[in-house]
Specification:
The chain is an all-alpha fold. It is built from 3 helices and no strands. It has one domain.
Length: 95
């Protein structure tokens, strides 16, 4: 085998290693994001439960959260109970 073939083989080997490394990092990031999303959903459900305990006037519909509509949800809650988001978070110990 000549030097050019050996060099070409080394480059291919390194590229394959790099692709494998990047793929593993991408998969790891995806799994972490899924875990973070699950954790965030759990935290939100806990927050909703605490709000419902403190304010019986709140319904499941008031606490319905759609991705990207968090401000709208807080606005509904604030109107119904007459408190700011910060006041509510302090009341339920989530500040």
């Amino acid at each position: 085998m000549n030097d050019v073939t050996l060099s070409h083989s080394c480059v291919i080997s390194r590229v394959l290693w790099l692709l494998t490394f990047v793929e593993e990092k991408i998969i790891s990031t995806i799994n972490t994001n899924k875990m973070n999303k699950t954790e965030a959903e759990g935290n939100l459900n806990e927050l909703k439960g605490k709000l419902k305990q403190k304010f019986a006037v709140l319904t499941d519909n008031d606490l319905m959260h759609k991705e990207g509509k968090e401000d709208e949800m807080w606005g509904k809650i604030q109107k119904k109970v007459g408190k700011t988001k910060d006041e509510l978070l302090k009341l339920i110990g989530a500040d």
